[in-house]
Structures are given as structure tokens and as C-alpha cells.
Amino acid sequence: MRLGGATLLVAAPATGLGLPALAAATVTADLVVYGATSAGIMAAVQMRRLGRTALIVEPGGHVGGLTTGGLGYTDSGTSAAIGGLAGEFYRRVHAKYAGTAVTPTSPMRLVFEPHVAAAVFADLLAEHAIPVYLDTRLTSVTRAGDRLTGLATDNGQLFAGGMYVDATYEGDLMAAAGVSYTVGREANSVYGETINGVQLRGAHQFTLPVDPYVVPGNAASGLLPGISAAPVAPNGTGDDRIQAYNFRMCLTRAADRIPFPKPAGYDPADYELLLRYVQAGYTGPFFTTQSVGGGKTDSNNTGAFSTDFIGASHGYPTATWAQRDSMVAEHRAYQQGLLWFLANDPRLPASVRADTAAWGLAADEFTATGGWPPQLYVREARRMLADYVMTERDCRGAVRVADSVGLASYTMDSHNCQRVVVNGVVKNEGDVQVGVPGPYPVSYRSIVPAQGQCANLFVPVCLAASHIAYGSIRMEPVFMILAQSAATAAKLALDAGVPAQRVDVGALQARLRADGQILTWPPVTEGEIVVDNRSAGVTRGGAWVGSTAVGGYYGTDYEHDGNTGKGVNRLRFTPALPAAGTWTVHLRWTADPNRASNVPVDVAHAGGVTTRTVDQRGSGGQWVSLGAYEFAAGSAGSVLIRTEATDGYVVADAVRFVPTA
């Protein structure tokens, strides 16, 4: 198989590359990973780097999950909280574009075309000689007591390992292993939350009144397609509904674009609700067009009626293979039909049709499937019930677990779950978008089954989290982070001969830190002193504006000068150093093309004042060294950011002082 331009040998059901050879009835490795998602790849890579063997069994034909399946505009929250192999992946993406070698200090690129992500994963799999068994579906498991001994598949093979990772979006191996799980939304009362369960809110909502009935005003005529007849329950009520799925499309306006196909069985009645919304005055947008480079997009759902197939995903998590295949086809037909409708239906304004038809599928992406992404965006499926369940309280920072194996930082985000009728008009229900104050730790206990259920399984994707907490955790970088941590724990469990639940968490965390994982926020280097823009050691001149618009900042936000008050606006960071000596000074900012390229920074130290000039259009979200200097103990030293004659916005975020041996 050729994946993203790099040749990768991938084992298929009848032929393959062995560890051992695919023809064997039983294939063994120290770690058996089920699911070639981004998480599955990272788990296998980490196990290989730790000197053990690993293989990946993938039920479908796609490698890389959503990361190679159209989600190129990465949902990251605080990007500086991405460490370890996940950070390396995004640095490798940058290196692919730049044509340079990847290094530990290479910048991360979190926005990319699908084929570039595929090429990076292909490199990682090839470099680590990891066999991937495609189109190989789990049928059952074998066990000895509370341990898995094999993963049986539909081609008659058994994959046997000392440890297992379920890296699927659905949690199929977890379920087959008899591990407890849930599907749906908990009531707020279950975990003492405030935004779980039913949520009738204002985001991605109909902003104009739209009649829900086949014959407007006549309830007896029935409801339009996709609208539930059930009365909406009070906010906070639990149910078995899950958020909507869609496909993340890679679109382009290029001349060689593939026009949107008309799906078989297309019925314009499926989009009557959208037509009425447009006739009521809605003018779009109908899908997002976030640029990922190369003239292409990562196009996602937006607004009240878009690419999300609301209400069609509820049965998917526990469905049979045949049922899932049918549901994937239904989602594809719905979304393709939507685009055809927008581009062609004569009842729509000409401007809507022309604007939609100006887009098409990128001809050089997903070539095996006609430009259409092969991976359905399964935003949520099963979620494990373990000895620790991540909840809204973790996301908000009200509790901070001590057994951290990685950080999450994205907004608590649920897409809509159903369409309902409220006071005679249609409404969407289930969308929640509530921010978190900063990166927060994910518990090791949330990625291993409860005590006694399965001693050698790790679940870094369908981990133990409430519906609303999962909405924050469920991002591709976090899945990669947790998968690396799971594989490291698997190695330690094998070495010590202990169950996953009894791994020495202190030893695990030490190894993770050595491998670049970030486990606490703010991240800490031994002996370092960090002065954040919100610390007591900051003084300001002029007017500074707080912001979180660009990711990569330290702490809760950063500040900028508004590109005004040049020479008047200045901000000084003053540390309280515990001892005299040589300290290396690092400055942090968030980068953007509108930033100044010539920011003067004065470092006041024991030998005087040294002025450095930094370019804030690049190197965002990193600690950039300003040099090493002698400082007296206490607060005599400082770092001053000035704005004189700067050619753009000046950012003040944080300064770090690291003792130099």
C-alpha cells in the first residue's frame, strides 16, 4: 500500500509483512493494538521505541483515523500542552512542508493537508517496522481469568500479545473484553455536573422561526425528516443520545476540483427544513472553509443545518458491522445530498448555488474514494466505566488528579444530538461549547479498566469520561498523548509482571517526562521560575489587552498592545530568584502574521541591561532563549518588553528563568 507518498508494507488478510508472517494462524507481539487511528499508531511506535514488539489490527482499510481523514485543522486548545510523540508528529508535519529535518525544537504545524499527515504516519510505521493488518475485523476474544490472551478476527487469525490497546473510536475491543462502559449522556446529578444531559441552548441553533411540519401549520401532516416527535426533556436530563457525526471534507476551488456528486436515492425533501430556513432569511454559511494550505480546506459543520447528520448516530456505537456499514453509507448520502442540494436546487437563491458550486472535492486527496473522506467522524461512542471517571470538575480545574498521564485543554464541546419542536418551531438540542480555564491532567485510572475487569488492556480513546468531559478530551492530539502513555504503562506492566491497574504511576510518570510528555500545567523544569503575564511580578505602562485568540500561550491568556501606544505601552516581568547565579532567560509569545517582527526586549541583570530583538511572527507557543546572564538573588533582575517603532502587534505572555549548572 502507498500511504501519503512513502511506501509502507501493510499486511492484508492474505499476504503481508510478518512479525511473525501473516500466513500464521496465530500472530504474536508484546503489544497488540486494535485500531490504526492516530492513537493506535502512537501506541505501537512507543512500544517499539521501548524495545518491545507491536502490531496493529485495523478493522477497515484506512490508516490514521481522523488525522488523515480530513481533520486537518487540528482542535488543540492550548497547543503548548501537546508533548511527547504527539508533539513530534506535528513537528514532523512542519518538517514535511519546510523540507527540513525534524528536531526537538522544530515548530509544530497543526494545520495540514490529509496526504501530508498520511505521509508522516507512513514514515513512523516504516521507521519502526510496525505491521498493520488492514480489513481485519474483531469477532471475539480469548481470555485466561482476567487477562486477554487473543484477539480473534474474521479471517480466522488470532492476534496474541502480553498487552492490548483498544485504539478504536468505538471501543469494540473493550466491549468484547467484558469491560464496563456506557453510551449516551449522563444526567447532571450523576457526577454533580452542570452541562451534561439534555441541553437546549443557543449555539448552532435556528435563529429564525422555521415551521417543522410537512404542511406548514398542520401538525397532523407529520414532521419533516430528521425531527423528533418526542417532547424535549428538561435541561440536565440523562438519555442514550450521542452527538452527531459527519465527514470532515477537504474542499478546494481549484480548476481540477471534483464537483459534488449527486448520491443515489437523493431526495430533496430531506433538505426541506434547510430550504425553509433560507426562505426565512438565513444566508449561510452552510459549512466551514478553514484553510489547511494548498488551496484546500478542512470543512466542518456550522450553524443550525449543516454537515452534521443530527439524530442519525445514536445506534452506531453498539451496532453490528453490517449495521455500521449501512449507517456510514447513510451519513455519506446525507452529506453528499446536502452539498448537491445547495449547489443545484433551483428554489435556492442563485448566490447560494453559485457559492457552493465554486467548491469541490480536492482531486489529489482521498483518491481511492473519489475525493470523499473515508473516515466517518465518530465524535463519541462507547465510554469506559473505570475506577476514575473524568468529569466536568476535572475540565474546570476544580479537581486535579495526581496520576496524570497527559493533558487536555479543548473546550467542553458537544455537537447537537436531536431536532425537536418547541412552541411550534424547530430547535436543535445538545450543542454545548463551554471553555476550560487551561490545560488539565487526565488520570491514568481513566485509561485502564476497573480493578478485576481486565488486567492487560488499555483504552486511551474510549476512556472513562462523562459525556461532557469527553467532549473536551476527544481531540486527536490528546488521543495520541494518552496512547503513548498507555504503551509506556504496558511496557512497565510487562517488565514487572503486574496488571495494568498496579503499574507504578511514579515510575510511569518519570518515563513519560523523559520522553517529552507534559503532565502538569504550567509545565515545570526543576528549579525554574516562570513569571506569567498574570503573575504578581508584572508591571505595565500604557494599555494592554488580554486575549486567548491565538493558541500556544502560557497560563490562562496573553496580552497585546493593540498595535497602539507605541513607546508608551511596555510590560515588565520581575522574578523572585531564590539564589544568585547564572540563569537562562526564555521569552514566550503567540505568533501570527499581524505580530511585530522587531520587538525590543531588555534583560536587566547583574552586569547591566542587554537588549534583544525578537520576531513574534514566528516561534509561537515556545520558550525562546534570550541568553544566559548573571543575576543577584531576589527581584533586582527583570525582562522588559517595549513597543517603540514596532511594526505590528506586540505580545506579552510569560518569561522563564532556568538555573544553569
Automatic annotation (TrEMBL):
Key words of the record: 4Fe-4S, Iron, Iron-sulfur, Lyase, Metal-binding, Oxidoreductase, Signal
InterPro entries linked to this entry: CBD-like_Golvesin-Xly, FAD/NAD-bd_sf, HdrA-like
UniProt GO MF annotations: 4 iron, 4 sulfur cluster binding; lyase activity; metal ion binding; oxidoreductase activity
Keyword set includes Ligase: no
Keyword check for Repeat: no
Domain Golvesin/Xly CBD-like: 529-658
Signal peptide span: 1-23
This protein's name: Xanthan lyase
Natural source organism: Micromonospora haikouensis
